[in-house]
Amino acid sequence: SEKQAEKAVHQKKEQSKTKCRKARRRHINLIAEFNHRQRKNIWLETHIWHAKRFHMVKKWGYCLGNSPTEKTYRACYRAMTKHCLLQDLSYYCCLELKGKEDELLKQLARICNIDTGLTFQEACCLSGRFEGSLNLYRADRYPEDMLGPVTFIWKPRDGSENRQLWIWVHPALKQDILRELKAIFQCSEPEEICVTEPVTTSTQEEKQVEVVTSLGNKRKKEDKEGEKAVPVKKIIGDGTRDPFQSYSWIARTTGVVISDRSMEILRYRLIGPLSHSVLTETLKAASVQTV
User: Fold this and answer.
1) Residues paired with residue 64 on neighbouring β-strands, in sequence order
2) What is the arithmetic mean of pLDDT over 105-113?
3) Would you say residue 270 has pLDDT above 80?
4) Whole-prediction pTM
5) pLDDT given for residue 233 in this prediction
6) CATH number at 93-189+246-262
7) Is pLDDT at 26 greater than 80 in this prediction?
8) Domain range list for the chain
9) Alpha helix (H) residue ranges in 18-142
10) Most confident of 25-34, 190-199, 276-285
11) Which of 53, 110, 157, 285 is the most exposed place for a label (fewest CB within 10 A)?
């Protein structure tokens, strides 16, 4: 048995030498490794791109690009003034409100004031054509107890009295603003409990997607779809929310639903004169069929 074990180890070493060092050190399941590495600080979708070019910092529960490793300030300035510069703002948190328009506006009016500028009831914003920005305060406490600045977007009307509103907040303000929204709408009961499978350890994930052969080599499960058959473990939640907490709440009296959509909706900011051209070339309008 000892000879067989020594032979297996020797064969494994011989095969490992055929691969380059980078290939030998690569994790057998990159997705499992990435999920393991971002348990404490969530990665944005563009994390890998930024990690190769930026000094990364851990703030607000995320891993964010802080400053470039090379002196690219002139290139960024040139892009902003003559071309197009893209910023990843997906770390901003999105709070979604659903309910009757009158009920939403009635309660939202308590946490903002027309003296500071726009409100949620502004006609151009209420129609869904434009994004609005304002400062939020604790209910009926203006001009004291300011919560912080937010931006908001109404979903355009579809003929129903029910509306949908997205409020974008900085992750440092998210918990306070969410708590105030739940208070004014009296959303104490969760609409649904976020029941997710616990994120398994890397060794458990490897056992799920790898089969150890007699020679000690690791290979993925054979399947007709190949790599597509490998299960993908995604971490549900974001840097400001525990993955096993509720993420949606409903008001029993009014039916208003508040949902935490953080990291479910990506957000990018385009700056520069060619921003519109980039969008028109990237996004294709869907054909609308009328019955």
Assistant:
1) 57
2) 90
3) yes
4) 0.70
5) 42
6) 3.30.70
7) no
8) 21-70, 93-189+246-262
9) 21-25, 30-37, 47-51, 73-82, 101-108, 123-126
10) 276-285
11) 285
Instruction: Kindly tell me if the per-residue pLDDT of 192 is higher than 90.
Output: no
What is the C-alpha separation between 152 and 165, in angstroms, rounded? 7
Between residues 153 and 33, the one the model is more confident about:
153
Q: Which residues contact 46 (CB under 8 A, 6 or more apart)?
A: 88, 90
Average pLDDT score over the chain:
77
132 bridge partner residues: 152
- Provide the residue count of the chain: 291
Convert 74-94 to b/e letters by CB count within 10 Å (16 or more is b).
eeeeebeeeebbeebebbbbb
Q: Which amino acid is it at 213?
A: T
What gap in Å lies between CA 245 and CA 35, rounded to an integer?
A: 19
Angle between helices 202-209 and 30-37 (to 10 degrees): 160
What secondary structure, in 3-state letters, does 67-101 show?
Answer: EECCCCHHHHHHHHHHCCEEEECCCCEEEEEEEEH
Give the helix/strand (H/E) hosting 212: strand 210-212
Sign of the CA dihedral 269, 133, 143, 105? Answer: negative
| CA gap 110, 23 in Å, rounded | 59
| Other Cβ atoms closer than 10 A to 232 | 10
Q: Which two tokens stand for residue 265?
A: 């909706």
